[in-house]
Amino acid sequence: MKKRILSILLAACMLASASSLTACSSKSGTPAASGEPKTPASEAGSEAAPEASSEGASKITVLMPKHEMDNIGFMEKETRGYESESGNQVELINMSWENVADRITTEMAAGGGSYDVIEFDNSWVPKFVTNNWIIPLDDYATDEMKTGMLPGLIDKFSYDGKLYGITWNNDTRFFMYNKAKLEQAGFSEPPKTWEELKEQTKVMQEKGLTKFGYSDSYMQAQSCVNEMFFVVYSFGGDFFDSEGNLTITTDPGVKAAYEFVANGLNTDKIVDPGSMTSDYETVANIFNMGDTAFCVQAWPGIYQSSNDESTSKVVGEIAVADYSVSGDGQTQAVLTLPEAMAIPKASKNYDAAWDYIKYMSSKEFDKRKAEEIGALPIWSELFNDPDLLAKYPHWSGFGKQAANSKGLPSLLWYDEFANVVLVESQKILLGQVSVDDGLKEMEEQCKKIQPQA
Amino acid sequence: MNKKLKHVLKRTGLYALVLLIVVYVLAPYLWMVISSISTKVDLMEVPLKFIPRHPTLQNYKDMLLGTSNSTTDAASQFMHAMKNSAIVTVCVTAVSMAVGILASYAFSRFRFRFKQQTFMAILFTQMIPPIAIIIPLYMIMLRAKLLDNIWALTVVYLSFVLPFVIWIMKGYIDGIPTELEESAMIDGCGRLRSFFLIVLPVASTGLAATTIFAFIISWNEFFYALNFTSLAAKTLPVLITEFSSKYGADYILTCTSGVIASLPPVLLALIFQKYIIAGLTSGAVKG
Amino acid sequence: MSKNQGGQRHDGRPFLDRHLPQLLIAPSILIILGVLILPILYSIYLSFHEINFSSNTYQLVGLKNYIEMFQDTYYLKSISLTVYFTVITVFTEIFMGVGIALVLNQKFKGRGFVRGIMILPWALPTVVNAVMWKWIFNANYGVFNALLLKLGLIDSYQVWLGTPLSALNCMLFANIWKETPYVVLLTIAALANISPDIYEAARVDGSNVFHTFRTITLPLIKPVVLILAITKTIWALQTFDLVFILTGGGPASGTELMTFFIHKNTFKFLKFGYGSAMSYMLSMVCFVLTFIYIKVFASKED
After folding, report:
1. Among the CATH numbers 1.20.810.10, 1.10.3720.10, 1.10.472.10, 1.10.600.10, which is that of C67-300?
2. CATH classification of B73-282 is 1.10.600.10, yes or no?
3. Residue range A3-23: average pLDDT?
4. ABC transmembrane type-1 domain spans which residues (chain B) (predicted)?
5. Taking the domains of chain C in order of start, what are their residue ranges?
6. Best CATH choice for the domain A59-171+337-405 from the list 3.40.50.150, 3.40.190.10, 3.40.50.300, 3.40.50.720
7. Where do the structural domains in chain B lie, given as residue ranges?
8. Which chains does C contact via 3+ CB–CB distances below 8 A?
9. Which of A141, A241, C28, C128 is the most buried if burial means most Cβ atoms within 10 Å?
10. Which of A150-159, A240-249, C105-114 shows the lowest mean pLDDT across its residues?
11. Which residue intervals of chain A bear CATH 3.40.190.10?
12. Alpha carbon of A440: minimum distance to chain B alpha carbons (Å)
């Protein structure tokens, strides 16, 4: 008796929840007894529900993180401007970067078509392209775009010869320093090499001008990987050779980079030990409070916040160098971590999506963005734009450093690779293991997960 | 004489303990309040000034009035998100209490087949990390067009609030001697009537505590809300994460929003104190 | 005792009466299963598969995901960290929480207010709690450093989140601070039903405080404490936001709790099958712990 009731209950609730998801339930309900590969729900799902939007052809949904320099609602305002100009309707969803990343992964894995334009980070390129989550934009992008935008940005979002994303956030890092402190310590020029940086720091520390030379974000997060890549690049090293083989233990630049940072933290005491727990925001705060003299990988926004009295004690003291610090004084490398807009394959409205992307990457838009929030342009010629240079004289330094910008490696297994680099780097920086042992372990762990070619 | 001294000592000791507890609870919170009314430069003073030199209520104003020009555009959505959170939380609390009490009564007072198994199964659903079921749940909501819908979110919340309500309320009902209802039933009361008239009032303190519990866990839920809402149904905890960029969290704005977000549950708790105290004086039973 | 009516007298009573308990639990079961049954079945199915997004296929891999996790050094480390975190938070929170509840159960001026503000930490959204503690523990400007320096307990600012063990303990503290009020709230409610007369009688009998607690208070609040222990264990094992924001699992993976690890494998590495398998392993651990709690509590009853 009770059994029957129980089974009725169970059936009822199954029915209740399953009414609208037959596609899903039939799939998840069939056990793959044979071991034969099955079509996952994602594909069936995207095909199963293409209705219900033909009439709303001009309504698109955009999922993007906030631009870190946008404190005035600029993107929102521009989106509304686009709406009135084009007649299309745009639902703009802003979330923090981490949340957007999770959200997009869930959406893509579930095979949904909720978004028409999505955030596309530089580290996702091979993964998203290989998984067929986004569409190539070559047919849409004009020649003017392909030739007029910074070549590095076009390259970064191309894969196997096709273009997949149009940059909206040119996040490139620069070497900034506290000119006033350097002058008080008797230095007229910022350091060219890491060795010089150490010497200058020691002098400033002795004179009580700063607590540390620099602070950086070495906490367990993507930022630590970014920053270690930068230091390695600046020592002329790399984690891979041109054929894609791991060179972690063989490249002298890698070793030199790790030795410099580990010593800087633990023995030379020129690097803020708090770096092991700091996010980028904290790094900027320390620099703006005058507790460090250098910001080795500063983003343009730091220049603005350093000149704002509510956030800074070093108003007017910060300058941008014409070069970046390096191992030998010759090699030049700054890091670029751009973010782009892409169109998911499951979107039902490619054309309207592209229309929005076109607007949000046009030269006029790019200039307004630079003027209003100080974001770096994505169009090459805007770096020489007289209006912008008049407003931001320090950009000439950016221009010179940006000539040597370099990104993270494009790997299909990037996330797992970065995880190993991250954890093993931290062991080295904490002094838990020697540089040699740590790098050896890093390479071994990487080899374990590297896909066989 | 000696007795009186002992009494005074006891009282002093008690107040000292209470003071210690209050300081322990309030100190970090107070720092959050101070942070929310300070400027960045003042906060990063070394040595630190514990009292801000330029206190300002600007952050609160911007957040509550939605004057977004001086802050992020997330701030202008604050009231909207607060409203969503309030609707979802109140509905989840009301439904989970109403439905959960019935179930916990059944589990506490009846004997029926598969009782233990059902009871454990209910809890087992909560031992599965949400991370494991988020993708299939998202697929279902996507196909049913239920994403970004506060009612759908309410139902999802019920699925994790309800099991805990059932378990906790069963604990309280178990603590009430069955003799109470039995005597009522002898007096001619029906089973359910005796439960509502006799047991529930005695359990009012537990009821109040469980209500606060249900309120707080749905008020603060983050992971489901993050994945299932985007604009129309966005809740407060999700919105608060938007005071972070990829460079890190804005401590000051996060603290401001945290202070505001923590007030509704506390007000509720203060109101419910009345019931807990009422329960103490009226419903006390002899164990 | 008297818990025997329900399902035994079949005849002569209307359907409603005969199936009262089933009808009482039906709405709850309907809601819980309605939402969760399909996702749970699906994720169990997934845990025996590997998804290949590029070719859009599910590959049946049997127990591979379940076996693989025990060969994953990062995972094994995260298990031990999670166990440490769970054991310490659950015990501390319950002991402290019951202790605080006993104090707040005494009569004193402003009791209602103190009980009300006790909720504050727990009422904070987890995200805010994590950001707040990160700010408090900040190596360069944190108030924790400032306070200890002022009290003369340290002579220079320390990097509290800078070494694995210290970071883990900071995380423990942040969690204990936030979640203890939950224990306090529910324990106070349980204590409220104990009549003062009983204590009075015990005092007249001359039993001391601890004896009273053990013989009178504890048995009465035991059902609630058991539930507190179980729910606390479930949540401690699933701690995610705190790790995500406070430490990112670092330094050197020293605070990488299991749920964080699962999240990374699922959302970053796209190993959905592996993530599901690890999730079910976590649920099993939780289930076994719950079972042990119940056995221990039940045996004490005799």
Report:
1. 1.10.3720.10
2. no
3. 41
4. 82-272
5. 67-300
6. 3.40.190.10
7. 2-56, 73-282
8. A, B
9. C128
10. C105-114
11. 59-171+337-405, 174-335+413-449
12. 31
Buried residues in C13-45 as b, exposed as e (16+ CB within 10 A): eeeeebbbbbebbbbbbbbbbbbbbbbbbbbbb
- Whole-model pTM? 0.89
Fold entry, domain A174-335+413-449: D-Maltodextrin-Binding Protein; domain 2 (3.40.190)
Pick out chain C residues at pLDDT < 70: 1-13, 299-302
Q: Are strands A334-335 and A405-406 parallel, antiparallel or unpaired?
A: parallel
Q: A76 falls in which pLDDT band (50, 70, 90)?
A: confident
3-state helix, strand, coil in chain A (%, to 5): 50, 15, 35
C-alpha–C-alpha distance, residues C177 and C171, integer Å: 10
Q: Give the per-residue pLDDT at C83.
A: 92
Query: Which residues are within 8 A (CB) of A360 and not within 5 positions of it... i.e. 6 or more apart?
Result: A75, A78, A79, A82, A168, A341
Length of chain B: 287
With CA atoms as reference, the chain A residue closest to C55 would be A131
How would you label A287-319 residue by residue, b for 16+ Cβ within 10 Å and e otherwise? bbbbbbbbbbbbbbbbbbbbeeeebbebeebbb
User: Measured between CB atoms, which of B14, B266, B279 is closest to C106?
Assistant: B14
Is the CB of residue C41 less than 8 Å from the CB of residue A28?
Answer: yes
A181: Cα within 13 Å, side-chain hemisphere: 32
Residue A111 touches partner B, C-beta closer than 8 Å: yes
Indicate the range of A175-179, B111-115, C9-13 predicted with least confidence: C9-13
Partners of B35 on chain A (C-beta within 8 Å) are none
Residue type, A374: G
User: Mean of the pLDDT values across residues B27-54?
Assistant: 87
